[in-house]
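F.,

This is the one I mentioned.
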């Protein structure tokens, strides 16, 4: 197998194809501190793409509630358990993964470690919702930060990985990564439904359609992003937690690119399960209320706790650039690829340098006068 460089692992790794970095890679950042678990993203996606026959159980976007929720059931626990011990070390100022990836730990004659979930694993998409990490004791009745008893929502879509396991495993070469934006797609004509992608994707973001007998997955709403419009789940996010854009490798990080800025420069966002070796392109600002660093490290590698600390620091120090970049998150339906803080505003620009969104850094505070002389009424009764 060829060796490819995975910057999230800080080292080279085995992958069945040569390293090809697309011109620019579509990516996203989800701020878990703002997700309210409303499932609007889930429904926006479902209504758009998966309302047909055979798609009933499919959630290309789902939101699970950690620590107990998962869809399909136990997807993360199962693959981490199969992978065994996952260790990280620090070398030359960067994190280096010392364990095996799913490609390196693959059984003989398989491309990667994986499994096909049982039908029963798909029956409870909301399992564990709003269940907290442990029973509340007398001591826990007083809220301390971070919270001793905690939970948080984890929205998930396909990560449009740099090294997709679904693509690697497909014997028909029906899965491909688009050159212009790195979106991972299944060629519906070539696919014969062997379900190797379904078995290999550790995030379980490929679904098998039992009616058409071919596999399907999130397409990052490519018809929309080609028109510089956000994907449906981003556009409809009620909590405004989602930043869409394009990520560069760390050595080419552009401080005006909001994704590069938040991931590579300010390091406030971390990849999901980087130890699996796929270099996923959806990043998360982990929840600051969680007192269990081991849980955060399990989900986001060593980048997780680092991101929590950097995020808290940015808020405490009133870092207007970080705050500005986050305020722009799906504040408009248009894709912006550059941003700048100018005076009291943060502005997003498209590829052509056109302003597409402008948001005040500080919401204007309007205090209504208690007496309205026009109507001769008192609006408030506290005078
Ligand atoms: S998350 Fe799964 S389906 Fe999506 S690109 Fe990665 S391996 Fe493929
Ligand atoms: S729409 Fe946004 S806030 Fe609501 S569940 Fe989805 S990601 Fe979270």
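My design for it:
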């Amino acid at each position: 197998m060829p060796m490819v460089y995975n910057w999230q692992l800080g080292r080279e790794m085995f992958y069945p194809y040569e390293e090809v970095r697309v011109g620019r890679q579509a990516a996203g950042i989800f701020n878990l501190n703002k997700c309210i678990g409303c499932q609007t993203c889930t429904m926006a996606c479902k209504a758009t793409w998966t309302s047909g026959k055979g798609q009933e159980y499919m959630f290309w976007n789902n939101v699970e509630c950690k620590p107990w929720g998962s869809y399909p059931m136990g997807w993360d626990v199962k693959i981490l358990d199969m992978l065994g011990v996952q260790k990280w070390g620090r070398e030359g100022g960067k994190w280096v993964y010392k364990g095996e990836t799913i490609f390196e730990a693959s059984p003989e004659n398989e491309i990667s470690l994986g499994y096909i979930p049982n039908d029963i694993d798909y029956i409870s998409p909301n399992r564990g919702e709003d269940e907290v990490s442990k029973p509340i004791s007398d001591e826990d009745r007083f809220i301390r930060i971070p919270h001793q008893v905690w939970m948080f929502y984890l929205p998930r879509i396909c990560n449009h990985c740099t090294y997709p396991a679904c693509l690697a495993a497909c014997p028909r070469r029906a899965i491909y990564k688009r050159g212009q934006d790195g979106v991972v797609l299944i060629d519906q004509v070539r696919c014969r439904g062997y379900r190797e992608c379904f078995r290999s994707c550790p995030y379980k973001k490929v679904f098998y359609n039992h009616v058409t007998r071919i596999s399907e997955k999130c397409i990052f709403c490519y018809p929309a992003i080609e028109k510089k419009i956000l994907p449906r789940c981003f556009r409809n996010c009620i909590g405004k937690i989602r930043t869409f854009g394009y990520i560069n490798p760390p050595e080419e990080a552009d401080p005006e690119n909001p994704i590069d800025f938040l991931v590579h420069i300010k390091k406030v966002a971390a990849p999901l399960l980087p130890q699996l070796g796929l270099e996923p392109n959806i990043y998360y600002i982990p929840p600051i209320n969680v007192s269990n660093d081991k849980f955060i490290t399990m989900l986001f590698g060593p980048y997780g706790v680092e991101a929590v600390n950097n995020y808290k620091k940015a808020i405490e120090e009133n870092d207007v650039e970080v705050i500005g970049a986050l305020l722009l998150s799906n504040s408009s339906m248009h894709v912006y690829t550059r941003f700048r803080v100018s005076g009291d505003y943060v502005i997003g620009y498209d590829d052509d340098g056109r302003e597409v969104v402008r948001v005040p850094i500080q919401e204007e505070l309007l205090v209504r006068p208690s007496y309205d002389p026009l109507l001769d009424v008192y609006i408030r009764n506290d005078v």
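The first strand starts at residue 3 and ends at 6.

Talk soon.
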